[in-house]
């Protein structure tokens, strides 16, 4: 077994290479960064709490969509009793008019491509 | 009674066959029920409809088409194979093929008729849609849920009026000025007139009716005896497109 050195060295190089993405991020200090969102609105709160919106905005939007399109019910009453027009373009995007710095930041981070924007119009100047 | 082995197997086999056949029978009997209930005319408090007065319609005027296609982001694709339309014109003879003859007078022959989805009482498009993307609202509007449309185009085959268009290509580059408050459509879905349901929700009348300066279009609830539209229907003779097909079209024409 004269090749032992070569085999071990090869294995080490191989391990280094396949774990490259992990240690590169650790060394670069970029491991587990959280995306930073820009909020451009004056409003203090979204229709529901930030925690709820972060976890459940997709379900909320689905419910809004079904309610408006299929049942012609267009007013959403939030937990705090405030009423909103259920509309992605006319309610959500009025505050979050910066899609590129808001929606896209997280969606890109988690690698999802929602199809909303195939039809719903992105406010001018915030396309990516 | 004594059952031998063969007898037991026969009875058991028959029983299993019965269980297997039952779902099929259920489906067939449900279809019958659905057909019967679609024919029944139930009392509703609201039934939206439109009257088009072709006598008031000025030749060459496209105000209603521009208004509708403008607010609804309908692309202007010149190629007739890819064309998208919610409201359009067609010659009288093509629009009313069963009410046409050689001597049609009154200036109707060859003159354009305004056409749009008839928001049928018994819409064939709704019957065939496999995803329920096309459905009928209680007030009679035949709506589309573009989120659910899979682009199978069954509805286009079923609609006898050519009211539906398919997006063969991305419509966005063909929209001159996008109305940001209304979504566009995307490649691969069918679209058609929605009776301006988004405007009705805000208390506005349909965009085409609002834009017509010649009072050629009227809109309203035909279940309300004192409504303007019922007045017009009372005092004028009106026809509908291809009424013999049983779809119950709700666009009435004064010719
Ligand atoms: S006109 Fe055609 S698309 Fe419109 S409701 Fe009737 S069958 Fe459906
Ligand atoms: S094309 Fe869309 S709306 Fe038409 S039948 Fe298929 S799924 Fe339904």
Describe what you observe in this structure:
The complex is a heterodimer of chains A (128) and B (255). Helices cover 48% and strands 5% of the residues of chain A. Chain A is mainly α and 128 residues long. Chain A has two domains: 1-33; 35-128, no CATH class. Chain A contains five helices and two strands; from the N terminus they run αααββαα. The mean pLDDT of chain A is 89. Chain B has 255 residues and is an alpha+beta fold. Chain B has eight helices and ten strands. Chain B has a four-stranded mixed sheet with strand order 8-1-10-9. Chain B has a two-stranded antiparallel ribbon with strand order 2-3. Chain B has a two-stranded antiparallel sheet with strand order 4-5. The longest helix of chain B is centred in the N-terminal third of the chain and has 35 residues, at 5-39. The N and C termini of chain B lie far apart (80 Å). The chains are: A mainly alpha (128), B alpha+beta (255). The interface between A and B is medium-sized, with 14 and 18 residues. One iron/sulfur cluster is lined by residues 128-129, 131, 133-134, 144, 149-155, 190 of chain B. One iron/sulfur cluster (SF4) binds next to helix 4 of chain B.
């Amino acid at each position: 077994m004269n090749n032992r050195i070569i085999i071990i060295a090869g294995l080490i190089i191989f391990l280094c290479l396949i774990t490259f993405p992990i240690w590169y991020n650790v060394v670069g200090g970029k491991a587990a960064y959280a995306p930073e969102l820009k909020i451009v609105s004056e409003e203090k709160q979204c229709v529901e709490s930030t925690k709820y919106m972060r976890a459940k905005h997709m379900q909320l939007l689905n419910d809004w969509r079904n309610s408006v399109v299929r049942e012609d019910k267009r007013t959403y009453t939030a937990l705090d009793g405030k009423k909103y027009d259920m509309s992605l373009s006319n309610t959500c995007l009025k505050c979050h008019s910066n899609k590129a710095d808001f929606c896209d930041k997280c969606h890109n981070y988690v690698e999802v491509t929602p199809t909303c924007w195939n039809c719903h119009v992105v406010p001018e100047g915030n396309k990516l | 009674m004594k059952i031998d082995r063969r007898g037991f197997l026969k009875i058991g086999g028959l029983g299993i066959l019965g269980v297997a056949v039952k779902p099929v029978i259920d489906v067939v009997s449900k279809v019958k029920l659905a057909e019967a209930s679609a024919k029944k005319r139930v009392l509703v408090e609201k039934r939206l409809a439109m009257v088009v007065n072709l006598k008031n319609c000025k030749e060459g005027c496209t105000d209603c088409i521009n208004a509708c296609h403008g607010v609804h982001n309908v692309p202007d694709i010149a190629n007739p194979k890819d064309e998208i339309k919610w409201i359009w014109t067609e010659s009288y003879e093509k629009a009313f093929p069963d009410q046409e003859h050689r001597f049609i007078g009154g200036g109707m022959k060859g003159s354009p008729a305004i056409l749009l989805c008839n928001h049928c009482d018994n819409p064939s498009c709704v019957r065939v849609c496999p995803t329920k993307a096309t459905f009928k609202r209680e007030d009679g509007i035949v709506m589309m849920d573009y989120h659910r449309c899979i682009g199978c185009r069954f509805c286009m085959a079923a609609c006898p009026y050519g009211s539906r268009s398919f997006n063969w290509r991305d419509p966005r580059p063909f929209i001159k000025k996008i109305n940001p408050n209304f979504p566009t459509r995307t490649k691969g879905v069918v679209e058609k007139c929605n009776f301006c349901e988004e405007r009705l929700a805000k208390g506005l009348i349909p965009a085409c009716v609002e834009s017509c300066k010649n009072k050629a279009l009227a809109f309203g609830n035909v279940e309300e005896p004192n409504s303007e539209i019922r007045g017009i229907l009372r005092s004028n003779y009106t026809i509908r497109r291809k009424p013999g097909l049983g779809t119950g079209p709700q666009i009435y024409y004064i010719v």
